[in-house]
Write a structure and sequence with these properties.
Elements: H1 2-28, E1 33-41, E2 48-53, H2 66-75, E3 79-82, H3 100-112, E4 115-117, H4 121-129, H5 147-160, E5 164-165, E6 170-171, E7 180-185, H6 205-212, E8 223-228, H7 234-239, E9 244-247, E10 256-257, E11 261-262, E12 277-281, E13 284-288, E14 306-314, E15 324-326
Bound molecules: fe (ii) ion.
């Protein structure tokens, strides 16, 4: 009898803990935090201030994202960079794919700000499932078309009309007088294959430079920002000429433990060291955002959604970003 009682008590305790953690996670997923980063460079002639959002995954803050938009307006960015994975697109079960909120966000942001976007693996997969290979991709995809994905891909593509999709081109985000240049690369799915069991597909700095449309003569002395959804190719990106690489994809490790860091990425990699924050690399810098939304494993613990505010200043002494600030 006592054993049954202790067993029931254990089951009840575990259930209570799971419910408690689920409640904490649900609350945290709605608590958008601002991370501020500041970089100085001799290439920068005047101050710039912009926002980086990634891995939105159809998450909204407030009705039609009014809360997110209000906070973005309050920060008065010069422009906005989107790091991909706005949508949710599963490997199978196209009926569960979602794009509508992303389209609404693209249009709302595009109405008020210059917005630049590089695609993430979820958008790549959406277009792949729609059978649109060759439209944005440099790889062959043998999978057959899915009518539902085609509809959703078409809707998302219409949303892209509100922003500037970066693919095989380098742009000057503030016009011809800008001391910045900006590239983005939309990598085919083969560069996102799960890593616990397979090596990452090699991608040389020269290939990356071509895929991102870097000019042959580099960025002509401009400070070069590179939108690269997955941080797995961070070194290659810096060696290809980037001063600042902006990534996401790893969702901050889902659950963050003190002293240990992120527990698991959406790709089911455990205890990956570089899942969020600032990482100096070979004279350049990598910022990995925790992202804004979730998918499939809808959990965030000690890992709140992130809006990244990046300030670039003319050179003086090196100044690094610091911790979180509640908005
Ligand atoms: Fe991703």
């Amino acid at each position: 009898m006592a054993k049954i009682f202790i067993g029931a008590l254990n089951i009840f305790s575990v259930l209570a803990l799971v419910i408690f953690l689920k409640k904490c996670s649900d609350g945290e997923r709605n608590q958008l935090r601002l991370e501020s980063y500041c970089f100085r460079s001799g290439k920068i002639k005047r101050a710039h201030r912009f926002l980086f959002l990634t891995d939105v995954h159809e998450k909204e803050f407030g009705e039609k994202n009014e809360e997110l938009l209000r906070r973005i307006r309050a920060l008065r960015p010069d422009f906005i960079l989107l790091g991909g994975d706005l949508v949710v697109c599963h490997k199978r079960r196209s009926e569960r794919d979602r794009v509508r909120k992303s389209v609404r966000l693209l249009r709302a942001l595009g109405r008020e700000f210059p917005v630049y976007l590089a695609l993430g693996n979820h958008e790549e997969r959406l277009f792949e499932k729609a059978g649109w290979r060759g439209r944005y991709f440099r790889a062959e995809y043998p999978r057959k078309e899915h009518a539902k994905s085609r509809e959703k891909a078409a809707l998302f593509e219409r949303g892209l009309g509100a922003v500037r999709l970066l693919d095989k081109e380098t742009v000057l985000p503030e016009g011809g007088l800008s001391d910045l240049s900006l590239s983005g690369v939309s990598l085919p799915m083969e560069y996102y294959r799960p890593l616990p069991f397979r090596k990452k597909k090699p991608l040389s700095p020269a290939e990356l430079r071509r895929a991102a449309g870097f000019p042959e003569d580099g960025a002509k002395g401009r400070y070069h920002i590179f939108l690269l959804h997955t941080p797995l190719y961070d070194e290659e990106a810096v060696r290809s000429g980037a001063d600042l690489v902006l990534s996401g994809h790893l969702h901050g490790g889902t659950i963050r433990l003190p002293l240990i860091g992120g527990v698991m990425t959406p790709q089911y990699r455990l205890f990956v060291k570089k899942v969020s924050g600032l990482f100096p690399i070979r004279g350049g810098n990598l910022v990995i955002s925790r992202g804004i939304g979730t998918h499939t494993v809808n959990i965030r613990l000690n890992n709140p959604p992130e809006l990244s505010l990046i300030t670039l200043l003319p050179e003086r002494e090196e100044e690094r970003g610091n911790g979180e600030t509640a908005l």
